[in-house]
Amino acid sequence: MKEYPGEALRFTADLMLKRLAKYLRALGYDTLFDEQLTDAEMRDISIAENRILLTRDQDLYEQTPELHSLHVTSQHPLEQFAEVAAQYPVTFRESRFMSRCLECNSVLVEMHPEDVKEDVPPRVYERQEQFYQCLQCDQLFWHGDHVKRLRKKLLSVIE
User: Fold this and answer.
1) Residue 112: which domain range?
2) Is the distance from CB of 109 to CB of 132 less than 8 angstroms?
3) Would you say 72 and 56 are in contact if contact means Cβ atoms under 8 Å apart?
4) In whole angstroms, what is the distance from residue 50 CA to residue 48 CA?
5) What is the C-alpha separation between 16 and 9, in angstroms, rounded?
6) CATH number of the domain within which 91 lies
7) Burial, 115: exposed, middle or buried (Cβ in 10 Å; 0-12, 13-18, 19+)?
8) What does the pLDDT look like over 5-61, one tens digit per residue?
């Protein structure tokens, strides 16, 4: 296992690792992914904020101190996730699972079902008891079948 900077395991993912960023966010890890950032900005933010820069770009990897970077070699998101999990103590905790917005990385807030009734399909509202919202980008989340499949997929790598 590699060492990592800071106390909490946090990441920055480059443009080629969007799905990997979503996997890490699903597990509750603070994972910065911003298509507008330049390589230099990603590197500088990773160092300043004690993040690990995950990149497929060999040049960017070589320009970033090893403590703050991992060169991800696979082109397949689940294999990319396995590379990260092999190098860092990525774990599954039920209390953190799906606690961050998969789109913008903000922490989700649990919503009262009545407050989102008009914003979700009736069938979903009837079947789900818990709803979560990102107050940053207004995305709504619930733990449907897609979340069960995602949990199973990520656990197959970690365990």
Assistant:
1) 102-142
2) yes
3) yes
4) 6
5) 20
6) 3.40.50
7) exposed
8) 777 899 999 999 999 999 999 999 999 999 999 999 999 999 999 999 999 999 999
